[in-house]
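pinning this so it doesn't scroll away 📌
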Amino acid sequence: MTYEGSPGTARKWPAGERAVTAGKVMVGWVALLWLLEVVDVASGHALDRFGIQPRDPSELVDVVPAAFIHFGFGHVAANTVPLLVLGFIAALSGLRRFLAACALIVVADGLGVWLVAPTHTNTAGASGLIFGLFGFVLLSGFVERRPLGIVAGLLVAAYWGTTFLAGLSPANEGVSWQGHLIGLVAGVAAAFVFRRGPRTQP
């Protein structure tokens, strides 16, 4: 990975620096989710209104905020580890690329939920983004023909594959399987949209 610039002036981003930056970003992201849930509980769950209620035009403004709001500490706790791990792996490929992929996933997932979620539901949480990052990490290495990326995708699939498949089941009551599925598709799309060229030897 190199910083943007002309071919003659670009400098490499050291792996250690890249890992530290990715770690800081994800710890900060997760800390924000917990802080928002503390505020939500302290305010009598006033932030829950930022969830997405489908097909109401006024709810379109909540497409992005909904990805940062949760329904209780158990909800945010369940999302903490997968978001930390998958976000860290994805961010290792470059912070701008990671943030662009997250933006695509969050917006696509939120709009999809707004369109297809069952009537009289309120959908919120980072799980749509998590499913998107799963798809992004799983496919990026193959799309870019990068051995380390392929290994990372296979390890993630081996460890979490069954769990993520279960999250796509319509039998899960009280869980937005539609949001999970749309997030996954958006993550796969992001792997193609934001792909880098295959690594070559100088």
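📌 and the second one:
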Amino acid sequence: MTETRTALVTGATSGIGRAAALKLARDGFKVLVHGRDAERGAAVVKEIEAAGGSAEFFAADLTDVTAVRELAAAAGDVDLLVNNAGFSWFGPTADLSSDTYDQLFDANVRSAYYLTAAIAPKMAERGTGSIVNLGSMAGQIGLAGGAAYSATKAALASLTRSWAAEYSPRGVRVNTIAPGPTYSGGSSRERLTALGQTTLLSRAAEAEEIGDVIAFLASPAAGYITGAVIPVDGGRTAV
């Protein structure tokens, strides 16, 4: 009998996180659905269970280090960690308040750092595991108005390489995917549609397309991929 694998997906109550949670559940993972909104979390769990999958909701404010550590402890041994939670801010550099700056780095970088710090060593002890970080094309190219947000995503790409060097020799694969404009509920559809026109495919992605790549990286088919930053951006960063 095949042992059930467990995936912790942060920010899984909407957008890319939700799409990834649904796909991973279909692939046989028990999904630990993280979010801050219990009602939305329960809806994702119900959707997974209705399709025959297994899921459980965990609430945590990932801008709070104590809450991050408590989430890791509650999750226990996981086979896959998807560091997806976070938010974006775009605007003139001079308009970004110090509070919002701190919140950006706390939510986008620090939460992933301390979840990985709590979970990756246990994966390494077992000799197996996978971590997928959600970067962005904004972390790979210059976008006017995106300095701080882009820096958080570039930080995740850098952390991915360092974590791969640290943990992959003991069986833990660590990768980042860098989506382009994606209809995920985080920005206006009009803005995303316009940004999608700048890609080689002339469109924005659906959240499910990003979720599929996350699921691929978690699968045995990606068994020789680690330390990579994989663009899923319609070719936007290729030229």
